[in-house]
Amino acid sequence: MAQHSHAGSEEDVGDLFSDCFWEIKGFKQVVKRIDDGATLTDNLMQLIHERSELELKYAKGLKTWSRKWEDAISKGPEYGSLEQTMKSLTVEANETADIHLDVRQKLTGSSLESIKHWKNSNYQKTFVKWKQTAAAQEGFDKVQRPWAKRFLKVEKAKKAYHLAARTLEQLKGQLDIYERDAMTTTDALKKLKDKLSKAETENDKTKDKYRDRLNELDMANQQYINEMTVEFEKCQAMEKLRIEFFVETIRDYLNYIDVSKDARLTNSFQNIQHGLNEMSIEEDLKRYADQKGTGMQMNWPKFMEYDEVSNTLPIGNLQMRDNNSNSGYDDRADNRSNKGGAGASGNPFNGFDDDSEWGDQNTYTAMPTPAVEVRVMAMFDYTGAEADELSFREGDVLIQLDEEDENGWCRGLLNGVEGLYPGSYVQLMK
Q: For 4-41, how does the pLDDT look when each residue is reduced to its tens digit (9 = 90+)?
C-alpha cells in the first residue's frame, strides 16, 4: 500500500484526499460514479426522446410530401401505367411515414417508459443527494474511520521521529565544531553534550513509537482491505446493473429504429418494382393514339343532298364524330370545371366514364355526416400545409365528419372550423 504524504490530527480525516482508492477519502471517485450513473440515465432518456422527435418530424414531412405529389400527379398530364407507378411512389412515402410514426411510438412508449421505471427503481432522491450515493458514502466512511485514525497516528509518530532525528544530526554537527574550536569553554561543551544525550534519547523514543504505530496499522490493514472490498463490490454490483440495463435498452432501440425489417416497407418497394416491370410503353402509347391521336375515328365530310330538316338546324349543333364512335373520347370532359377535371389537368385518361379501365379514380366524394357524433383525439401535433387543412396540438379533440378516404385523410371540425386532417394522427375516443 502506498505511503501517505500528509500528516495531521484525527480531526483532519475529512480533509485528506488521494486518487488512490485505499488512502483517506480515496473512494470518492467510486461514490461519484453512482451520481454519474443517474446523470447518464437522464442523458439516455434525452437521446431517445430527441430521436423520437426526429422520427415524428420526418413522418410529418413524408405525409405532406405524399399528399402534395399524389394530388399533383392526379391533376397533371401524366397518364397510363406510368401515372400509376408515379402514384405508387407517394403511397410508399405515406406507408414509410406510418412506419416511422410507429418507431416514434415505440421509442416514447416502450423505451422511455422502461428507462423511467428503471431509474425510479434504482435511484431514490434524498434532500441533497441520491439515497444510493449516501449509503455508499456512509459505508466507506464507517470502514475507513478506524483505519484512518491509526494511519494519522503513524503520520504523527513519523513526523515526531523525523524531527528528533534532524535535531540529533544538528547537535552532532554543532558538537564537532565545538570540539575543534579552541575557544570553546568546558562549560559550553558540557551543556552541548547534555543536549546531545537528551536528543539521542528522544530520537530512540520517537523511533520506537513510530515503529509501534506502524505495527498497529499493519495489523489492521488486512481487515481494512477486506471491509473496503465489500463496500466496493456493492458499488460494482450497482454499476453492473446499470451497464446491463443500458446494453438491453440499446438493443431494443436498434430493433425499434431498424425499419428495414418492416414488411410494409418491403411490400411498398416490391409494389413499385412490380409496377415498373409490368409497364407496357407500347400499349400506353397505342391507347393514347386511339383515344387522343391518329387512332380516333373521324366522320369525314361526304357529299350530302339537300335536306330541308338538316338545313334548318343551327350550325353549332353539328358534331365532329358520329354517335356510334367507339374511340373512347368523351367531349363532356371539356365542359368540366377547372378544379379536378380532365380538361384542366391535361391528363388524357382522366376524362373517361367511371366503368372504363382508365376511369377517373381520384374523384373525392364526401361521405354523409354520421348521425352519431364521432370524436377523435390527436396523438401528435399537426400543422396544416394547405388552406383547407386543420392544425391541432396533441390532445386536442376533433369531431370526425367523414370516414377516412383511400389516401388517409378525414374531414372534421375543430373549434367550429371544418377542414381536412390525416387520419393517422388521431385515435378514436371511447
A: 444 444 445 444 556 899 999 999 999 999 999 999 99
**Rounded to the nearest 10 degrees, what angle do helices 112-122 and 186-257 cross at?**
150
- Pairing type for strands 374-378 and 426-428 reads antiparallel
Beta bridge partners of 420: 389, 411
Per residue in 368-413, pLDDT (tens digit) is 445 578 999 998 999 988 889 999 999 999 999 998 998 889 999 9
- Mean pLDDT, all residues of the chain: 82
CB neighbourhood size of 419 (10 A) = 19
Question: How many Cβ atoms sit within 10 Å of the Cβ of residue 149?
Answer: 15
Contact in structure between 48 and 106 (CB atoms under 8 Å): no
Q: Are 136 and 91 in contact (CB under 8 A)?
A: no
How many of the other CB atoms lie within 10 Å of CB of 192? 18
Q: What is the pLDDT of residues 259-279, one digit of tens each?
A: 988 888 888 888 888 888 888
Instruction: Identify which has the larger pLDDT, 346 or 415.
Output: 415
Non-local CB neighbours of 60 within 8 Å, separated by 6+ positions: 97, 380, 382
329: helix, strand or coil = coil
Nearest residue to 102 via CA among 149, 52, 64, 157: 52
Name the nearest CA neighbour of 273 among 91, 88, 94: 88
**For residues 413 and 421, what is the distance between their CA atoms, to the nearest angstrom?**
10
For 22, 149, 174, 204, 209, the CA distances from 155, given in Å and listed in that order, are: 16, 10, 29, 17, 11
pLDDT at res. 291:
85
